[in-house]
Amino acid sequence: MVPDADLPHLPVARAVWKPRPDLHIAATAWLLAGGPHHTVFTQALGIEPLEDLAEMTGIEFLVIDDRTRAAEFKKELRWNQAYYKLARGL
C-alpha cells in the first residue's frame, strides 16, 4: 500500500501496511526483535526466498505475521540467541 498523502519531509523509505495479527502484537514482536535496526519489508518476494538468504548468510530470520504470539516470539528469540552463540562456539 502507499501512504494516503505525500510525505515530502520524511527522509526514509516509506510504506503502509496492516500489522498482523494486530498492532499490539506486531509492535511488541518488532520491538523485541530490535525494532527498525534490521527490518526488511518487501512486496516483491515471499517469505521463502528471504528465509533461504538468511540460511545461506547465517543471519537470523524472524517473521511477524497472522500466527505471531508475543510469548512464543520471545521464546523464539531466546532459542535463536542460544543457537547462534553455540554455532559460533561461544
Description of the molecule:
- By secondary structure, the chain is mainly α.
- The protein is 43% helix and 0% strand.
- The protein has helices spanning 23-32, 47-57, 70-87.
- The longest helix is centred in the C-terminal third of the chain and has 18 residues, at 70-87.
Helix/strand layout:
Blueprint (H helix, E strand, L loop, with lengths): L22 H10 L14 H11 L12 H18 L3
Helix pairs in contact: 1-3
Helix proportion of residues, in percent? Answer: 40-55%
Count of alpha/pi helices: 3
Task: Decide which structural class fits the backbone.
Answer: mainly alpha
Shape: globular
- pLDDT below 50 for ≥5 consecutive residues: which ranges? none
Whole-number average pLDDT?
Answer: 87
Keywords:
globular; about 90 residues; about 45% helix; about 0% strand; mainly alpha; single chain; 3 helices
TL;DR?
This protein has 90 residues and is mainly α. The protein has helices at 23-32, 47-57, 70-87. 43% of the residues lie in helices and 0% in strands.
